[in-house]
């Protein structure tokens, strides 16, 4: 039997219609040294059955775990990591697919001193498709990559990356947090790397639908604070001591994301205004110059939120309709 080099972990909840293509996108790359671990997070539909049906094509390479109770994506990924045998770990969401060449590309990119790889993505919203990539490209030290992620210059997603297993530890993501947990885990993992290679090639297709969690719920400010606390707790001390300004920019970025979700939500005008007001109170104008230098889009959004919250909300809704169409509904 071929030794497992790469483990692809797929957390799944209510994914009976998409889990089959997700699994197939990994298997069709033809790597006998790759395993797929699907973690069904106590789905009430036929997600587990659909995953097992897809696994029948490669029963020695696809493993389906079922959690007894819904625990959230962080717990599902952690359960998959505990089962994984590969020295390289990649994550994939159950409604997305890896594109041909993902596995070979990240394997080649993980040379002797490179511990993590970032790739580009293809974003599909219905019939609309566009390609995106992190702003920072090339080789970075782990601390440089972590600070770039804090400034939104490296994407917050785990599914467009591959990590050497030791970067993830035993607690790769904060538990009990349902937004921003991805970014927190990515920042900490990158901070532990010797070198990170960032590539522009779009090798994952991210599929946005009206049912996506991103569009359906306004994050709690407590979730932002929990994610920031996870980063502060788990960053290596040498990185944490030099990243105070980056942490302040990260706080601003997450606060803007909460405000954007509120502007898009269907919670009603009063609820939306209450969240926007709370976010404005959380923002510090002193951070704006640093944000404008390192993450211009977030800095401009924060400045607009502070000065003209109604205009901020209108701008968010207009931009989202242009980029995502029907998927932008709350």
From TrEMBL:
Residue ranges annotated for the Glycosyltransferase 2-like domain, each copy included: 7-168
Source organism, top-level taxon: Bacteria
Cited CDD domains: Glyco_tranf_GTA_type
InterPro entries named in the record: Glyco_trans_2-like, Glycosyltransf_2, Nucleotide-diphossugar_trans
Protein's UniProt name: Glycosyltransferase 2-like domain-containing protein
Organism: Brachybacterium phenoliresistens
């Amino acid at each position: 039997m071929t030794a497992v080099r790469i483990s692809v972990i797929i957390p799944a909840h209510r994914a009976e219609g998409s889990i089959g293509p997700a699994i197939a996108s990994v298997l069709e790359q033809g790597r006998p040294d790759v395993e797929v671990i699907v973690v069904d997070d106590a789905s009430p539909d036929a997600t587990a059955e659909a995953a097992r049906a897809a696994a029948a094509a490669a029963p020695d390479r696809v493993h389906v775990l079922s959690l007894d109770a819904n625990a959230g994506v962080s717990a599902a990924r952690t359960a998959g990591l505990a089962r994984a045998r590969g020295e390289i770990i990649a994550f994939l969401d159950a409604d997305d697919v890896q594109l041909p060449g993902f596995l070979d590309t990240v394997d080649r990119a993980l040379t002797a001193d490179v511990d993590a790889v970032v790739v580009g993505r293809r974003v599909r919203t219905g019939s609309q498709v566009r390609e995106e990539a992190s702003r920072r490209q090339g080789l970075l030290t782990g601390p440089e990559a972590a600070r770039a992620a804090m400034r939104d210059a490296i994407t917050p997603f785990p599914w467009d990356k591959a990590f050497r297993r030791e970067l993830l530890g035993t607690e790769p993501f904060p538990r009990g947090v349902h937004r921003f947990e991805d970014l927190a885990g990515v920042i900490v993992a990158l901070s532990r790397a010797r070198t990170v290679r960032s590539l522009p090639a779009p090798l994952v297709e991210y599929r946005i639908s009206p049912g996506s969690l991103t569009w359906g719920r306004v994050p709690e400010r407590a979730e932002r604070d929990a994610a920031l606390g996870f980063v502060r707790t788990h960053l290596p001390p040498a990185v944490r001591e030099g990243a105070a300004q980056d942490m302040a920019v990260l706080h601003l970025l997450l606060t803007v994301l909460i405000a954007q979700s509120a502007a898009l939500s269907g919670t009603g005008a009063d609820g939306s205004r209450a969240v926007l007001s709370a976010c404005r109170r959380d923002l510090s104008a002193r951070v704006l110059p640093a944000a404008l230098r390192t993450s211009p889009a977030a800095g401009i959004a924060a400045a607009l939120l502070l000065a003209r919250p109604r205009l901020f909300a209108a701008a968010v809704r207009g931009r989202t309709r242009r980029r995502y169409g029907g998927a932008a509904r709350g």
